Amino acid sequence: MSAASQFTQPLVMQQRKPARSVEHESREGRSDGPVFTEPERPHLKAGERDMCCRSAVLQNRFGRQVVKLNFFDPLSGDAVDFFVNANAGTGSKFFEAWVIANGAPPKPRQVMSVRVFRGKFFCVEIGETTQTFNKTKLKPGEGYSVVKRVLRRTL
Predict the structure, then answer these.
(1) Beta sheet of 79-85, edge-to-edge order
(2) How many domains are there within the chain?
(3) What is the reported pTM?
(4) Are strands 31-33 and 24-25 parallel, antiparallel or unpaired?
(5) Is 103 part of a structural domain of the chain?
(6) Which of 33, 45, 66, 142 could form a disulfide with 61 if both were Cys (CB 3.0 to 4.6 A apart)?
(7) How far is Cα 62 from Cα 99, in angstroms, rounded to an integer?
């Protein structure tokens, strides 16, 4: 097939299926609108609390690597997350928390694995969020509880 004959062939277009939206049917059977899919956010009393790190994962969020630590209280069942930038610099919150979990600063060129947190008990500072990821201020009642800092290892 020559280059000229390529342009004389009929053009076949495929029809695309319309995009689907998530909708909710009411009891009457009609669509009322989209379904709210945000997870339930914790609301805990602010202050220091002893909690166990249930999971520690490295995620790509907001165009950067973020460490997500999930802490829970085995007595009450309360759970709260700690989100921190994965930064190995000595002035970062991650570095401070990692040294507490590891028991010593990292050696030169050591990988600062997030696994060092799992299964250990820490005294953590709990507070409320005050802004969204893009620095928009939250109204009273819109925030939720997060771990602000890891203070010390307890067990």
Answers:
(1) 79-85, 64-72, 47-61, 121-128, 145-153
(2) 1
(3) 0.70
(4) antiparallel
(5) yes
(6) 66
(7) 25
Distances (CA, A) of 57 to 113, 123, 124, 129, 142: 9, 20, 18, 21, 26
Residue 8 lies in a domain: no
C-beta neighbour count of 118 within 10 angstroms? 16
CA-based R_g, the chain, Å: 24
The domain of 51 spans 47-153
Asked if residue 33 belongs to a domain, the reply is no
155 residues of the chain, pLDDT tens digit each: 554 444 444 444 444 444 444 444 555 556 677 776 666 777 888 889 999 999 999 999 878 899 999 999 999 989 999 999 998 788 899 999 999 999 999 999 999 999 999 999 999 999 888 888 788 888 877 778 889 999 999 97
pLDDT digits (tens, 9 = 90+) for 73-99: 999 989 999 999 998 788 899 999 999
Q: Do the beta carbons of residue 93 and residue 100 sit within 8 Å?
A: no
